[in-house]
Amino acid sequence: MAGTPDERDERIALLLDYENLAIGAREGLGVSPFDFGPVADALALRGRVVARRAYADWSFFDDDRRLLARAQVELIDIPQRVGGSRKNSADIKMAVDAIEIAYERSWVTTFAIGTGDSDFTPLVHKLRELDKRVIGIGVASSTSRLLPPACDEFLFYDRLVEAAPSPAPAPAPVQEEPAPVVGQVEPAAEEAAAPADEAVERVVTRTLSGLARRGDGPVLASRLKRAILRQDPTFDEADHGFRGFGELLRHLQSQRIIELREGSAHGDPEVTFPVDEPAEDDAFRVLAEVVGELSRRDGGVPLSGLKDQVRKRRPDFSEKTYGYASFLSFAKAARARGVITMAYEQVNGDWYLEPA
Questions:
Q1: I want to staple 324 with a disulfide (CB 3.0 to 4.6 A). Which of 96, 262, 319, 340 is the partner?
Q2: Distance, CA of 125 to CA of 130 (rounded, Å)
Q3: DSSP letters of 256-274?
Q4: Span 164-214, pLDDT tens digits
Q5: pLDDT of 106-139, one tens digit each?
Q6: What is the CATH number of the domain that holds 292?
Q7: 278, 281, 332: which is closest to 306 by C-alpha?
Q8: Cα distance between residue 230 and residue 50, in whole Å
Q9: Which domain holds residue 203?
Q10: How many CB atoms neighbour CB 100 within 10 A?
Q11: Do residues 201 and 323 both lie within one domain?
């Protein structure tokens, strides 16, 4: 597509078969109410979401309704009728709306269909026949095998939840401080700056990691900034002490967190992660040491809880700093480098790690 960068972004219509997703997440993942945030973040990396609709009988999802309304999702109510099927009514309404959008809103390039129901496979085929890209979203345990192959891309909600950022810790209670002694240097401002720097660093690395995984071309600084703003429209690098986004990127490059290369346009560099980064190698070494110590005591070390053990050794550890979407991805990268070995135990439902 020609035009400005915003015009070249995919324009996405998101339609959610909410009952299918909510019940699948509750029964398959123990997530209730359904957390829409990971879906929103994943789509923000792929383009502009110009329509958000969720279909359900909302009298059954009271808490969910309030959370979705805050996320700017339009709620399409399909009330249960005597002698009728609420599920079929929602499916039909969602399919009709998708076809209507495809014909009447030519600027919509992509449909994100949130469901695991194979009944939507013909709709996916029809949308692709109309030259629309289709992204499916579903919970692995409740997704039909027929649906993912029909889509251009399929996002399992399980993985999106795994890759989602951890919620920020609750602020410590405010305590009254004695009046400062005249001439005493106050370290509070400097100490408060560290968490803010770490927060903006993780926003950039998490977004860059998501864009890089798509593998659809170099990640330019302008594209990275647009993706960050789609996830958080209030983002402003000035809040973190930088006069521009380029200055923020140069700061992160000086910290060896990212690497900047000459881009296709002047002033719009390509942003990547450093190759053979010593800090990353050091993080793998710490992981190997922790696994070695725990395995001597308990044998194979379960992945669950291992990140907390690593943080006891290195409190500022985050796999997202090195471009990994989840701690499991970081552990698999360590295995690929021969740092550890790991195997999945079906009985316990967890990965177990041992020294290489």
A1: 319
A2: 9
A3: TS-EEEEEEETTEEEEEPP
A4: 655 544 444 445 445 544 444 444 443 444 455 667 888 888 888 888 877
A5: 999 999 999 999 999 999 999 999 999 999 999 9
A6: 3.30.420.610
A7: 332
A8: 11
A9: 193-272
A10: 10
A11: no
